[in-house]
Amino acid sequence: MAIRKRKTLKGFSLGEVLLSIAVLTAGILPMLGALVGALNTSLDSQEIVIASGLAQEGAELVLNVRDNGVLAASDAFVAFQPGNRTCRIDYNDAVLSNPAVNDIDCSSPGADGTYYDLLVLSGLYAHDSNAGTSAKFKRRIFINYTAGPGRAAVVSAVYWGSYVPTAANVNTDCTSLNMCVRTSVTLLPWK
User: What is the largest distance, in Å, between two alpha-carbon atoms of the chain?
Assistant: First the structure.
């Protein structure tokens, strides 16, 4: 009769299991931190891209008012008020369709602080939309119009943090670090 050797099954000890878990954890945690950092950077970039588009839209709407003024009244700046003013404008403002009758909205913002807020309605951003959803973005249009030579310096600023641009600081302090982007254009009469 042959004697069989008993096979002994070898496994991992508790110490080996704990050591392998510690090594895996030490390797995964830095990767998770890098992933969270990349996600935050991506979200910040998304906000900057949206705000840049809204700032460009503001400047182009003012440009359209100037162009429509030439067509409606033979006066490029018929809808502009002289001086250095802080204004707002949307894609649905009446001044775009009839600048000879309507001015760009540069009225007093009121006390509630929502005058420059942009709301989202059907995927479009606008001020004063009763049915819109509040967005994080605000837009101010700074227009410095000089009637004599017929020249308007326009700065469109979109911001979404605690920084609030003013005519005095928009060109120096409106940066992505302050959660603000701007675009500027100088308008001259073309007719």
Answer: 121
User: Where exactly are the structural domains of the chain?
Assistant: 20-187
List the one residue out of 185, 167, 190, 189 whose CA is nearest residue 61: 185
Residue 133 has pLDDT above 90, yes or no: no
pLDDT at 1 (0 to 100) = 62
Statement: residue 27 has pLDDT above 70: yes
DSSP characters for the chain?
-PPPPPPPP----HHHHHHHHHHHHHHHHHHHHHHHHHHHHHHHHHHHHHHHHHHHHHHHHHHHHHHHHHHHHS-TTTTPPSEEEEEB--TT-HHHH-TTT---B-----SSS-TTEEEEETTEEESS-TTPEEEEEEEEEEEEEETTTTEEEEEEEEE-SS----TTTHHHH--GGGTEEEEEEEE----
Report pTM: 0.80
Residue 49 predicted with pLDDT over 90: yes
The pLDDT assigned to 94 comes to: 92
At which residue do the structure tokens 């989202």 appear? 120
